[in-house]
Design goal:
The chain is an alpha+beta fold and about 70 residues long. It has one domain. The chain has two helices and four strands. The chain binds zinc ion. Zinc ion binds next to loops.
């Protein structure tokens, strides 16, 4: 039934995870389908491959934030 709702009204995505400033993961409120923003800024299905890439990007991103904080500390 939930999928039927989505096929009529479209998915109702909300941000499930903010990977970087520009890269986010979304989940549909109704059918729990997960999507992510790809290189060209469009939404694409969140496959295990994407999850892997996002996890790497997230690590790089948080390391950068940490480094920036260290520089500001001095
Ligand atoms: Zn949906």
């Amino acid at each position: 039934m939930k999928q039927l709702y989505c096929s009529i009204f479209g998915h109702d995505y909300h941000i499930s995870k903010e990977v970087t400033y520009h890269l986010k993961e979304y989940a549909c409120k109704h059918c729990k389908e997960q999507v992510t923003t790809n290189g060209s800024g469009k939404l694409t299905l969140l496959t295990p491959k994407h999850k892997e890439i996002n996890a790497v990007l997230e690590r790089i991103h948080s390391n950068r934030l940490k480094r920036k904080a260290l520089i500001l500390d001095r």
